[in-house]
Design goal:
The protein is of the alpha/beta class. About 45% of the residues lie in helices and about 15% in strands. Helix 5 (about 165-175) links the parallel strand 5 and strand 6 (about 180-185).
Length: about 280
């Protein structure tokens, strides 16, 4: 199990400093929000991509993947009836799949709630169908590049398209590609799911539809900075035999990004060490 840090937590640092700081704390990886790299990250040069990959490797850390994919450039949507906007969005997504592969990452997490929102004036079924068409296309791209593209269930407060793992699993089934899966985000699950997170892990991981994990407290802070308990989450992941990436993704950096990142890795390492000693 690799514990990765979502790099926007440290976005006041240079990329080289992010890599060094996360590695020194004990993280095994960085999960990159593309907007922190460039306003048009899907278009950055091959030389720049190679430099970022080298900086991570020199710091002893791996770039595990990408998330928060469609914040930039502005005006993107996978559900819109505007064919030109949808095609532009698909072009950006294709570029990000290539970026992920070039950086040595293995997974892309499609959260981007505003860029998948189905507008009130649009038909829900039609909007969902359009998004499915986009994801079917990107699944082929991901498969060709050897990465996994994950649709992230998010709460109804954030978006009206894909709010639960069950809904995401239905989409995964319809797409029918090994490169297109869903993922578990603990903050969203605490808010949107009726089952506990350990029960969700026991139900969905054996079905092979979940390809990634984000951990964050429902108070928007890092694990260990709220009332949500994460030992049962990691115990369930360990019992299943999950050996993928678990990324720390707080939104409220309390008291600041460095402190939140430090607190989270210490808390998680303590849980993992306890689990190991109990074997």
């Amino acid at each position: 199990m690799i514990i990765s840090l979502c790099n926007e937590v440290l976005r006041d640092m240079s990329f080289a400093e992010q890599c060094s700081f996360a590695s020194a704390l004990g993280y095994g990886g960085l999960e990159i929000a593309p907007y922190t790299l460039d306003e048009e990250p899907h278009l950055v040069s091959a030389s720049k991509r190679a430099e970022w990959r080298r900086l991570a490797a020199d710091s002893g850390i791996k770039i595990t993947g990408l998330h928060w994919l469609l914040l930039t450039p502005a005006g993107l949507s996978v559900t819109t009836a505007d064919d030109s906007v949808r095609q532009r969005t698909l072009d950006v997504m294709r570029g990000l799949v290539e970026l992920c592969a070039d950086l040595g990452g293995s997974v892309l997490v499609h959260g981007s709630p505003k860029q998948r929102l189905i507008a009130d004036e649009e038909d829900r079924e039609e909007g969902s169908r359009r998004a499915e068409g986009v994801f079917a296309e990107i699944a082929r791209e991901a498969e060709a590049k050897g990465v996994t593209y994950c649709i992230e269930p998010l709460s109804k407060a954030e978006t009206n398209f894909i709010n639960t793992i069950s809904e995401a699993a239905d989409l995964v089934s319809r797409i029918g590609s090994p490169a297109f899966r869903t993922m578990l985000d603990t903050k969203a699950a605490f808010s949107s799911e009726t089952e506990s997170i350990p029960n969700l892990i026991r139900e969905w991981f054996p079905q092979g539809v979940i390809g990634h994990v984000h951990v964050n407290d429902r108070n928007l802070r890092a694990p260990g900075q709220g009332e949500d308990l994460f030992a049962p989450v990691f115990e369930a992941l360990n019992a299943y035999g999950y050996d993928g990436v678990v990324s720390v993704e707080p939104f409220d950096y309390f008291p600041d990004g460095r402190s939140a990142a430090s607190r989270a890795i210490g808390y998680i390492q303590g849980i993992l060490e306890t689990i190991e000693h109990q074997k």
